[in-house]
Amino acid sequence: MVKGIGAPILIGILVVGSYIGLDSAYILDQNQQVVVVEFGKLVRTVKEPGLHFKVPFIQSTIYYDNRLLDHDVQPTEIVTKDKRTLVMDNFAKWRIINPERFYMRLKTEAVARDRIKDIIYSELRLDFGSHTLEEIVSTHRDQLMKQVTKRSNSKANDLNMGIEIVDVRIKRADLPPENQLAVFNRMREERKRIARQWRSEGKEEAQKIRALTEKEKVIILAEAYKKEQEIRGEGDAKSIAITAEAFGKDPDFYTFLRSLEAYKTSLTSRSTLILTQNSPFLKYMSLQ
């Protein structure tokens, strides 16, 4: 009878002992860190990976990730220095560097994300509110985000939250839907203005080119006409000189040639001449 009762007791003791043993041991991975609490009061923090022990039933463990964590929030509106409203979609990289302070101030990652969102948003409003839209989107973007990251991390340190904000970046910066059409219209009008300016400058340049071409044309034609007259004058002078020389050698023969040319020109099939018989024009046509 005693032996029959002892077996269940032994089994119960083994079960209770196993449960106690399991509850008193815990394993920590390389990407984890843990705080051990006793009735809600912090006892110690453990960062070394491996097998560790605690007081069963009385102490409990809370695990935190020691890797970089993502922080991504819904887009929020920010007003720039030139009174432009931007819908800013940003994200951040952060990590828990002091589990003890993190547990005492924040307890959970959800609470930490809410606090980080408030810190980053306030810094974004401060920095972007002192810069224009062009500076935020293009020229000063990297510098601004570095400043936001630095000040956000400094504020988290001042609050002793046990976290480090490593990086803050902008995923997207859009205009509110109600402003997009007006901005697009302004951009369209600006492009049209630039196009009109280029066309006007092109027409002006074309007129200059045409005027210069016309001027060169007039100069070339004038020089050509001058050259033509000079050549024609030289030719006429040579012709006159040759004619005078020929006339001086045989005046009668020259007169005869000139008369033949006059006959050829005047006596055509459709010409009618009324001349006297003694007309000098008919000198070389006379039979006498």
Automatic annotation (TrEMBL):
Matching SUPFAM superfamilies: Band 7/SPFH domain
Coiled-coil intervals, chain numbering: none
Keyword terms, alphabetized: Membrane, Transmembrane, Transmembrane helix
Keyword Transmembrane helix tagged: yes
Location of this chain's protein in the cell: Membrane
Main subcellular location: membrane
UniProt entry tagged with the keyword Hydrolase: no
Annotated transmembrane regions: 7-28
Domain Band as annotated: residue spans: 23-187
GO cellular component term, pick one: membrane
Family membership noted in the UniProt record: Belongs to the band 7/mec-2 family. HflC subfamily.
Protein name (database record): HflC protein
Organism of this sequence: hydrothermal vent metagenome
